[in-house]
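> call design_seq(struct)
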């Protein structure tokens, strides 16, 4: 295999049943990684794993709710049991607003659910992953953040922005805490990506597809595969000196 950047490495990827997570899992497998697909969506997760194995890659599915510490610890154990260690962890699982609302109209229930999945879920994932990586002598973690966690956007997503901003801060702090234990930790901050979640937001009336595209200075939406390649860079040894970084993949949004 040419340019097998993850040859021989094991990778646990949360939220890999669809969208960006599925694209990451498939790209990692194509680059030689042995993949564990983790998701609460069993049908989609099994489909991602099956697609990888049919293509000649190595993958298995494990059901995991990222709001459950027990599920995440079990997912890490499953990865180690299958492949011997946990080299790479991709904490991608997350949810988005369905319709959006100004900050003062957000319900406590909506806030708690979104923050629980998007921020607490990353923290719980990292707890389980770092424990294993400390025991084995190192590893690499890449978290899914968002450009909404770096700049203000008037889209009725205060809770989403706060959670993703928390992921950025958590990533930077954890990177410093564990850098001397050979654990690299980074985050990716996408702009507006063509996913099923974007389709749901459009159907909910948050914006049209054309309006979503104009959020980028380029006027073009980003594909999941483009984001997956950024995760590949940060997960591989090509970026061995990069840690504590939140990398925008936003077609220039943050530059404005």
């Amino acid at each position: 295999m040419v340019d097998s950047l993850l040859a021989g490495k094991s990778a646990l990827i949360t939220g890999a049943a669809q969208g960006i997570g599925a694209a990451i899992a498939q790209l990692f497998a194509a680059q030689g990684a042995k993949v564990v697909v983790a998701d609460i969506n069993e049908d989609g997760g099994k489909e991602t794993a099956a697609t990888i194995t049919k293509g000649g890659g190595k993958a298995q599915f494990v059901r995991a709710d990222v709001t459950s510490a027990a599920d995440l610890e079990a997912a890490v154990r499953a990865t180690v049991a299958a492949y011997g260690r946990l080299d790479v962890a991709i904490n991608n699982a997350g949810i988005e607003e369905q319709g959006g609302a100004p900050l003062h109209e957000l319900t406590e229930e909506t806030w708690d659910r979104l923050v629980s999945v998007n921020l607490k879920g990353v923290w719980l994932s990292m707890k389980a992953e770092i424990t294993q990586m400390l025991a084995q002598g190192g590893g690499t973690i890449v978290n899914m953040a968002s450009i909404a966690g770096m700049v203000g956007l008037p889209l009725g997503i205060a809770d989403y922005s706060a959670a993703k901003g928390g992921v950025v801060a958590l990533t930077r702090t954890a990177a410093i805490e564990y850098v001397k234990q050979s654990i690299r930790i980074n985050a990716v901050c996408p702009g507006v990506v063509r996913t099923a979640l974007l389709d749901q937001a459009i159907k909910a009336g948050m914006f049209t597809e054309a309006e979503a595209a104009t959020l980028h200075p380029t006027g073009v939406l980003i594909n999941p595969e483009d984001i997956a390649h950024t995760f590949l860079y940060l997960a591989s040894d090509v970026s061995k000196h990069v840690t504590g970084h939140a990398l925008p993949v936003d077609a220039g949004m943050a530059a404005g």
